[in-house]
Amino acid sequence: MRRSRRRSVAAVIASWACAIALLAAAPLALPATVAPAPSAAAADASDWNPGSIIDDAVFYDGAAMSAGEIQSFLDGKVRSCQSGYTCLKDYRQSTDNRPADKYCNGYSGAANESAATIIDKVARSCGISQKALLVLLQKEQGLVTSTAPSAWNYSAATGQGCPDTAPCDASTQGFFYQVYYGARQFEVYRLNPTWWGYQAGRWNNILYNPSASCGTQRVFIENQATAGLYIYTPYVPNQAALRNLYGEGDGCSAYGNRNFWRTFTDWFGSTKAGGRPFGSADAIEAYPGGIRVRGWAIDPDTSDPIQVRVSLAGAITTLTADADRPDVGAAYPGAGSRHGFDTRIPVTTGGSGQVCLTAVNTGSGSDVSLGCREMPFYTGSPVGAIDSVKVSSGSVTVAGWALDPDTAASIAVHAYVDGVGTAITANRSRPDLAGPYPAHGTAHGFTATFTVPLDAKQICLYGINSGRGENTTLGCRSIMTPAARDIGRAPMGYIDSFDVVGTTARITGWAIDPDTKNSIAVHVYVGGSGRAITANGTRTDVAEVYPAYGSRHGFDTIVDLPATATNVCLYAINTSGENTTLVCRTVQGADQNRAPIGAFDSATVSGRTATVKGWAIDPDTVRPIAVRISVDGKITTVTAQASRPDVGAAYPVYGGSHGFSKTVDIPIGPSRVCVTAVNSRGPNTDLGCRDITTPDEGKTPIGSVDEVSVSGTTATVRGWAIDPDTARPIAVHVYVRGSATVLTADRSRPDVAKVYPLYGAAHGFHATLQVPAGSSQLCIYAINTSGANPLLGCRTVTGVAGAPVGSLDAVTASTGALTVRGWAFDPDVSGPVNVRVTIDGAVRTVKADRDRADVGAAYPAAGPLHGFEQRLTAAKGGRRVCVSVLDDRGGYSVELGCTSVTVR
After folding, report:
1. Distance (Å, whole) CA 680 – CA 684
2. Is 485 exposed, middle or buried (0-12, 13-18, 19+ CB in 10 A)?
3. CB 691 within 8 A of CB 672
4. Which of 558, 658, 702, 727 is most buried, most CB within 10 Å of its CB?
5. What are the phi and psi torsion angles at 191 (to 5°)?
6. Measured distance CA(663)–CA(238) in Å, rounded
């Protein structure tokens, strides 16, 4: 199997003229990596026609198979893959988007696509038969039937961009790119036939082999598909290769095009169309008001022109392919030249859609798709924009653009100033429109200046329709401007919101005096009591509508409401002249005693302080409320009045001034922070609690070993340990002859708490562990949360052989019962031993005969069947539980441990 050539104009012309290329694929006598595949219809060398390897109608049929049919085909070729390999039937990869161009309709990438899906989507995009692509993959790399394909086989799957003397082009490597750009290359050949050395409709001298001494064969190439195969693989098989159709020929044989024809025939039957029409959609173009389609179509059953069916987003137009196409007549002299079409079809709806062309069959055979393209439909109402409106005293200048999708001609734009209209033409050059509207040209801009009264208020512009659709409003703009002198125009404004919340009302809006760009006063009256505010809040939306006045004209005010019905009125105050009433409304306040809402967002620790953040609202008032912050019971009160735009967006009636952020002192180590929203009247709301701790500074733990005692081979250790960086319990490690036992110093030690009150009492440890017979060193270490682990002390211990050993792992309490769990055995006893459980002095007996694999691993001579876990009834309340094992000789008992639990 060979690596095929990089496909390029220079390379193919050179290979045709100078025979500088490698031998086409040798007969696909592949090794054991290829599974046997039975023939669908064995090829016969007598049917080989070098001038027509495959008909155009067969090769360029992008709907020859579905993805499901491809998958079934691949499954039938390989039953199972060799271990460690991925066969084509199972291959998947994620694909990316490929842009549409004149050769293919592009590709919409997706995650984890199967090879069958990739082949099908590429075939439909580029108009190449799915069957032809499957044969190409087999011809180039044997991928269809290989049971052990390599990564390189996929990387160079179709040989596209892979010269024989250099690595593959990185831009076309990988299975998806190989299939996409391999299929696209055949469209490049088809749509640019004169670029290449081998051309349809004429005699061509085609080499047998890269060696010129092997000679050439004079071949009349009958169709474009055959020309494309010779450009892709520039050799014709000699008689030796044809005589041994499924084997090797002689030293001058080449096999690539023979193998393509033979494999296609074996798998899919004849490469002939069987009477089906063929042709080409040379161009599908959008123009203002319609779609232009250009190409040719021939039915081999007749030399007469045939029909071509054009679908525009489902709307069908049928045309006759009877235009003179000398190039087609030269390529297919038996059919003649009158098989072309070049037609403009109006569109009736805007947007975009699929434009598909189908050659309509006239005799035997069936209709054949010539391809589809996603195209824009240029029709409908005008579009455009107002780019700028510039106002000066007594005049206004507007600029923008407008076009009608149904025509490339310039259209009229009507401008109305306070109802008085003027017509202009949008015919100025706008090069920026060439990109989004390539079919309409650039003569669609407008600029015009109008004389307007000093008190003019608004200008509106309309694009005037010339085809389908109706006139379009391009927009309206305020053309009010401050006067050089105050001419007494009345203020204007708007109340955006008037929300009554419990005993308060929040009122927002804006106000402008047309005679000045300065902010003006707004008077707020609740009953007969009034106060002045200034409308100077930022309102970019107002500035967009009234650009001459800027943005400082907004207001947002809160008023307290009495419990009786009261008039609330706001007035915009004129700089010279009459004021304007913005609103008057009768309202009444009422506190409904609703609980506050809010959130405890975070508590961030820094050193010995924590910053507490959140928000709180009392639904009965828009005013900020108090928030209490508790650190282990120590209270700090703040007002929730910081800006929180996110809260304002969620609760627009209340606004965004309801946040809080307060830094408070915290104790060393862990502490608990709780936040409460304080109601103005009624129940408070707990916003939550957070556990925090101060930073670990790497301080060395402290502690003490209070007791080390031994009974038999069981040692009891007791003491305490604290890490100064945390009040939480820490780990303690006990080492005996290199074997570690991990404990947690979390038992209550009130004596330790008295000495170290910041850390509490939960820092004691008390545990038993096994020690070997004889003398050993027992050492105890306090484990630092961050830093060195100090030694608390070492003791010499002596284990007595033969004594029972074991462990009380846990005592857990439940309702009316407790459960003891652990293990025990007597080295002098071969079987399980009885464990004595004492509950407040009352003795129970439990047999230690459960499977404990960990015990068996630690004491292989004793085996694993020495565990116990028993639920025992117990009265409600605090209970002292002790567990021991009596030595088999009865001399003494070995205590496994005691603990206190509370039974529910």
Report:
1. 9
2. exposed
3. yes
4. 658
5. -85, -5
6. 91
Q: How far apart are CA 153 and CA 148, in angstroms?
A: 10
DSSP string, 633-700: TEEEEEE--EE-HHHHHHSTTT-SEEEEEEEEE--SSEEEEEEEEPPSSS--EEEEEEEEEPPP--PP
Q: What are phi and psi of 432, to 5 degrees?
A: -65, -15
The closest of 298, 203, 224, 204 to 60, measured between CA atoms, is 224
What CA–CA distance (Å, rounded) separates 851 from 723?
A: 38
Phi, psi dihedrals of residue 132, rounded to the nearest 5°: -65, -40
Tell me phi and psi for residue 199, to 5 degrees.
-135, 145
> Closest Cα partner for 653 from 597, 614, 602, 571?
597
DSSP string, 68-84: HHHHHHHHHH-S-PPTT
Q: Which two tokens stand for residue 51?
A: 């001038």
Q: Which residues contact 868 (CB under 8 A, 6 or more apart)?
A: 820, 821, 822, 823, 824, 835, 846, 847, 848, 849, 850
Q: Kindly give the interhelix angle for 224-232 and 175-191, rounded to the nearest 10 degrees.
A: 130
Q: Mean pLDDT for each 10-residue chunk of the chain (904 residues)? A: 37 34 35 36 88 92 93 95 96 96 92 97 94 96 96 94 79 95 94 91 93 95 93 95 94 95 95 85 90 92 94 93 91 87 93 92 85 89 94 88 95 95 95 93 95 87 92 91 82 94 93 94 95 96 90 95 93 92 93 92 90 95 95 95 95 92 88 94 93 86 93 86 89 95 96 90 94 87 92 86 86 95 85 93 94 90 90 94 83 87 93
Q: In this structure, are residues 162 and 171 in contact, taking their beta carbons and an 8 Å threshold? A: no
Using CA atoms, how far apart are residues 168 and 157, in angstroms rounded to an integer?
11
- Please state, in angstroms and rounded to a whole number, the distance separating the CA atoms of residues 532 and 480: 26
Judged by DSSP in three states, 95 sits in coil
Q: Give which of 370, 341, 367 is closest to 276, Cα–Cα.
A: 367
Question: Whole-angstrom Cα distance, residue 509 to residue 224?
Answer: 72
Spell out the residues 6+ positions from residue 114 whose beta carbon is closer than 8 angstroms to its own.
67, 71, 91, 92
DSSP annotation string for 815-845: TTEEEEEEEEE-TT-SS-EEEEEEETTEEEE
Backbone angles phi, psi at 699, to 5 degrees: -70, 150
Scan for tokens 């391999």, then name that residue: 182
Task: Return the H-helix or E-strand segment holding 470.
Answer: none
Length of the chain: 904
Structure tokens that stand for 525 in this block: 């009256």
Enter the pTM of the model: 0.46
| Residue with token string 């003494």 | 892
∠ at Cα 102 (100, 106), nearest 5°?
20
Q: What are phi and psi of 602, to 5 degrees?
A: -165, 160
CA distance 48 to 267: 16
